[in-house]
Design brief:
Number of helices: 3
Protein name: Helix-turn-helix domain-containing protein
Number of strands: 3
Distance between the termini: 53 Å
Order of helices and strands: EHHEEH
Strand order of the largest sheet: 1-3-2
Structural class: alpha+beta
Pfam families: HTH_17
Largest sheet: 3 strands, antiparallel
InterPro entries: DNA-bd_dom_put_sf, HTH_17, SinI_DNA-bd
Amino acid sequence: MPELPDVRFLTVAEVAELMRVSKMTVYRLVHSGELPAVRFGRSYRVPESAVTAALQRPIADVG
């Protein structure tokens, strides 16, 4: 049997807490494709590595 990679998945609430945004913002990022996620039943799980990568991206200048 192949070995599974060590991937840690976070709930939307955990991602929101780490990113210091609302859960709705996390859902928007997931639905827009900016934050990859896997759907388990009716809930989403986000790979911890994707959150880390999103937090390290430079912020675009606004206006």
